[in-house]
Input
Amino acid sequence: MFYGSMRHTSTGRKKKTNYWTTPKKKEPEFKPYVPSQKFVRSTPDYPSVSLSEQGKSYETKSPTKQEKIDISSNYTIAPAYNKGAYQVIGRNNIKDIGK
Output
């Protein structure tokens, strides 16, 4: 059997004054939403034009393997000074590597 106060916990901390008399909150009843009137847009609706209607195609053309080799032949990869990271350098700046 435990003897003690109703105002303090077993550790000695004071309880809230209405700790044992707090009434349970009443849950509000559910009422479905019924709009009073139908929504009417104040401005006219202008839909976007699709690409097929314009007659244009916006597909990107990826370079072929040979084109990639030709482009990369103009550049070289070298470490940036002594920091360990690598950088892409053009052919005209090769003399500046490591400076």
Notes: The chain has a mean pLDDT of 77.
